[in-house]
Design a protein that fits this description.
This protein is of the alpha+beta class. The protein has six helices and eight strands, in the order H-E-E-E-E-E-E-E-H-H-H-H-E-H.
Length: 196
């Protein structure tokens, strides 16, 4: 016949202590998270954004109830090939390389209203405003003017994109480069002849 174990048995006490320590470590591991440099984190409580953006470093959250979504706030560089019409209805093609950064204090609003992660920011926020600005600026000028005043028009496009994105206040435009202007060969020859 087996003898029942005593409550004060050292083996039972050790098992309870180990279980408590492991549970505490598990909860601590779930409660702490690190936001890397160059990012901010959006914390949601049961799916709803709670509080402001969490800054880089060690942060706390409620285990199993809160989730963390990081957003990169470093400058992003994205090239966009486009084709548009000029004032004289000529097709031009070029590449617009936009440099932008998410405003750190707006990450929660971006998550709540537009994008659940970094990959969705460009197609949902930047690209539509960029293409709208490109079409609106280039439609004001004839092809000859565009070819001869390319730098001035690039600066105008950058200002127009920045103004368009400032309406929403999600991101900051840090630069825009227009490169690779392509026009039909017969118009290129006519422009060169006019310049000569």
């Amino acid at each position: 016949m087996q003898t029942p174990r005593r409550i004060n048995d050292p083996a039972n006490s050790l098992a309870v202590v180990v279980a408590v320590v492991l549970s505490a470590l598990l909860l601590l591991g779930q409660a702490l998270f690190i936001v890397p440099a160059g990012k901010v984190a959006v914390v949601t409580t049961l799916g709803k954004v709670s509080g402001g953006s969490r800054l880089p470093g060690l942060n706390l959250k409620v285990p199993f109830i809160q989730s963390v979504y990081p957003f990169d706030v470093r400058t992003q560089v994205k090239p966009e090939e486009f084709a548009t019409l000029t004032k004289d209805l000529q097709v031009i093609e070029a590449t617009a390389t936009v440099k932008y950064a998410v405003r750190p204090n707006e990450a929660g609003r971006i998550y709540r209203t537009i994008a659940g992660n970094d990959r969705e920011i460009y197609p949902r926020i930047i690209q539509p405003s960029l293409l709208k600005a490109l079409k609106s600026v280039f439609s004001q000028y004839e092809l000859v003017t565009i070819a001869t005043e390319w730098n001035d028009i690039s600066a105008l496009v950058e200002r127009t994109v920045a103004e368009e994105l400032d309406k929403f206040d999600y991101v900051e435009v840090r630069g825009l480069d227009l490169t690779g202007l392509q026009i039909a060969e017969e118009y290129r020859a006519a422009i060169e002849q006019k310049q000569i």
